[in-house]
Amino acid sequence: MSTTLIGRLTADPELKFTNKGTSVTNFSIAVNRKKGDEDYVSYFDCIAWGDLAAGVNTLKKGDRVIVHGYLNQDRYENKEGKTVSKTVLVADAVGNELRFAGKDANPKTPESDW
Questions:
Q1: Number of structural domains, the chain?
Q2: Sign of the torsion angle spanned by Cα atoms 95, 64, 35, 110
């Protein structure tokens, strides 16, 4: 299933390498949404591999990004011996989300000219 999320990086991405030398970057994003008068935030773990991983590593905490990929459910056994599952967005494409870039870069609004 294809999934696209738009949000802000919650921390600087971490570039690592597998034993075979493949680059991998783990990162998470916060997605804000409004329901009525209330704001909600959801957090999503993401992973990028290969050349994409190196590119993601150039982004910084707080950057607004768009992530496109597929959902993968990882299952593992924790220290207590319980099976735990975690859903991760495996990224096929990651980029700066520029729709609101001008808003962040230039805080001047028409009202401020009055």
A1: 1
A2: negative
How far, in Å, CA of 70 to CA of 81, rounded? 28
103 falls within a domain: no
* CATH at residue 27: 2.40.50.140
| Owning domain of residue 41 | 2-98
pLDDT tens digits, one per residue of 71-110: 999 899 999 999 999 999 999 999 887 665 555 444 444 4
Q: Are 60 and 12 in contact (CB under 8 A)?
A: yes
Distance from C-alpha of 74 to C-alpha of 47, rounded to nearest angstrom = 12
106 domain residue, yes or no: no
C-beta separation of 4 from 68 below 8 A: yes
pTM for this structure?
0.78
